[in-house]
């Protein structure tokens, strides 16, 4: 949680807010052993080594012994696979086999077996979108699935003004991505090259290709695209609030599209790739583009002339902490009640 990978961790954080329990734990694999308290969560880091799954079971057993009723809510296929205890709720962001197939991983067939096994050992399987469910190796006969969309913890955070100055003569685009190949940063760089006088692009996030794209931008001498790296929530909110438009590109592996609803929270237009779960989440399909430069450019200039402003209303009606939180509370209460049966 302290590293703020701003993906699964943020989902876990807001899920934890909706469960009525005195003791909540976040268990994760890390580079070193750690133990700390963060926003109501007892965070336990298990060092990634050959013994990590034995340590995982030891930690969960100790927690289970310490407390009368324990819900195991997992987001990690391997954790659930090697855990001696059954998983009460398993959240699917993107299917393990689906992701490994898209990346042509050498162990994809092994991951296929792991994924199917985890679903059978989970009391409830939670999908973050209909698309995520469609790409999972989930057997409909299990009849224990539920779909609950994501929300964002940014809604509950206080806004603090930061000194950000954007050009009034350009369209200022903002995106938050894991900097890897599927995020199509290459297409954003091409966009910056072709529109030096009309578009500024700001990319927040870290990932394995961050230095590669930074070097490429420097080599091309582009001053209208900035790789921001990791930025904290206060600065993140300022970029959302002050940009002209939020953009989300994806090639695969986008089980929801959190930057879409975060843009809507700040009443911003969002344009995005016509792929994965994005058409399911976006307010209107007129804001979708194909992953090529001409479609992208056309959509930016078309959206810039659009005077729609119902985005925050759409967020609060569909994805707000209140709207999503009530569904999680019902889910957790259902699991708790089963303990009493």
What topology emerges from the helices and strands here?
Elements: H1 8-16, E1 25-30, E2 34-38, E3 41-47, H2 52-66, E4 73-74, H3 77-82, E5 87-92, H4 96-102, H5 108-120, E6 122-127, H6 130-134, E7 145-147, E8 171-176, H7 185-194, E9 199-204, H8 210-220, E10 225-229, H9 233-242, E11 245-248, H10 258-265, E12 269-273, H11 278-281, E13 288-289, H12 293-304, H13 311-318, H14 321-340
Parallel strand pairs: 1-3, 4-5, 5-6, 6-7, 8-9, 8-11, 9-10, 11-12, 12-13
Antiparallel strand pairs: 2-3
Helix pairs in contact: 4-5, 10-13
Protein described:
It is built from 14 helices and 13 strands. α4 runs antiparallel to α5 and α10 (258-265) crosses α13 (311-318). It is α/β, with parallel strands linked by helices and 341 residues long. The two termini are 34 Å apart. The chain folds into 2 domains: 8-151 and 321-340, Glycogen Phosphorylase B (Rossmann fold, 3-Layer(aba) Sandwich), CATH 3.40.50.2000; 155-318, Rossmann fold (3-Layer(aba) Sandwich). Keywords: Transferase. Residues 162-307 form the Glycosyl transferase family domain. InterPro entries: Glyco_trans_1 (IPR001296).
């Amino acid at each position: 949680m302290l590293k703020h990978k701003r993906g699964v961790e943020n989902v876990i954080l807001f899920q934890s807010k909706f469960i009525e329990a005195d003791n909540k734990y976040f268990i994760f694999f890390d580079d070193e052993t750690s133990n700390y308290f963060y926003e109501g969560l007892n965070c336990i880091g298990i060092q990634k080594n050959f013994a990590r799954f034995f340590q995982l079971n030891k930690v969960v057993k100790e927690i289970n012994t310490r407390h009368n009723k324990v819900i195991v809510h997992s987001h990690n296929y391997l954790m659930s696979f090697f855990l001696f205890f059954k998983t009460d709720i398993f959240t699917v962001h993107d299917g393990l086999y689906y992701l490994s197939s898209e990346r042509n991983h050498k162990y994809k067939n092994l991951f296929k077996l792991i994924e199917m096994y985890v679903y059978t050992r989970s009391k409830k399987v939670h999908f973050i979108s209909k698309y995520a469910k469609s790409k999972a190796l989930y057997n409909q006969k299990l009849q224990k699935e539920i779909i609950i969309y994501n929300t964002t913890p940014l809604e509950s955070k206080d806004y603090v003004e930061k000194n950000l100055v954007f050009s009034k003569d350009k369209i200022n685009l903002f995106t938050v991505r894991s900097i890897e190949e599927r995020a199509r940063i290459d297409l954003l760089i091409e966009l910056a090259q072709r529109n030096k006088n009309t578009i500024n692009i700001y990319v927040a996030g870290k990932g394995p290709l961050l230095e590669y794209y930074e070097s490429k931008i420097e080599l091309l001498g582009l001053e209208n695209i900035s790789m921001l790296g990791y930025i904290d929530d206060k600065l993140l909110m300022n970029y959302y609030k002050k940009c002209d438009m939020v953009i989300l590109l994806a090639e695969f592996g986008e089980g929801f599209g959190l930057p879409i609803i975060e843009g809507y929270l700040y009443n911003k237009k969002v344009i995005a790739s016509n792929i994965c779960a994005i058409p399911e989440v976006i307010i209107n399909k007129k804001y979708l583009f194909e992953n090529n430069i001409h479609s992208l450019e056309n959509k930016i200039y078309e959206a810039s002339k659009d005077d729609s402003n119902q985005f925050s209303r759409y967020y609060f009606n569909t994805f707000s902490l209140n709207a999503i939180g009530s569904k999680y509370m019902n889910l957790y209460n259902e699991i708790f009640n089963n303990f009493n049966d």
